[in-house]
Amino acid sequence: MLIIPNSTQLLKMYLISLVVKGLKIHGPLVVYKDQLIAEKYAAGFDKNTLQLGWSMTKSITNAMIGILIKNGKLDVTESPGFEEWSKDDRKNIKIHDLMQMNSGLEWNEGY
Predict the structure, then answer these.
(1) Cα separation of 106 and 23, whole Å?
(2) Phi and psi dihedrals of 29, rounded to 5?
(3) Distance, CA of 95 to CA of 88 (rounded, Å)
(4) How far apart are CA 108 and CA 64, in angstroms?
(5) How many Cα atoms within 13 Å fall on the side-chain side of residue 99?
(6) Residue 69 and residue 62: Cα distance in Å, rounded?
């Protein structure tokens, strides 16, 4: 008799394969309709392990900004509105520059 796993079982199997393949994926999870339906952690990681999410965070932030633009609530050609930036060269930075990581601001990636 052939047993065919359901979609949740298949998803869990896929997440396990991602972690096992050593793709530097430490904790994939899937949320569907506000419910956590699958998760898998690499050795040494669990749901409480803090992880860097630079590119993921940027993608989610840009998606939310896209929604604001579509709804006419944000213009990326405007300044981000930080009062302390109005007193120096940062006054020329636009929201679009920040979204493209092209603001010219110095930063330290030491972590």
Answers:
(1) 30
(2) -145, 160
(3) 16
(4) 25
(5) 19
(6) 10
Q: Is the dihedral of CA 32, 38, 42, 44 positive or negative?
A: positive
C-alpha distances out from residue 50 to 18, 26, 28, 38, 86, Å: 19, 11, 13, 19, 35
Amino acid at 57: T
Half-sphere exposure of 89 toward its Cβ, with a 13 Å CA cutoff?
Answer: 4
Q: Sign of torsion, CA 39 58 63 48?
A: positive
Residue with tokens 């896929």: 14
**Cα gap 85→95, rounded to integer Å:** 13
Task: Show the tokens assigned to 78.
Answer: 């405007």
pLDDT in tens, 34-64: 888 888 888 899 999 998 887 888 888 999 9
Residue 96 φ/ψ, nearest 5 degrees: -60, -40
Both structure tokens of 81: 């509105």
pTM of the model: 0.58
pLDDT (tens digit, 9 = 90+) per residue, 11-36?
777 777 776 676 777 888 888 888 88
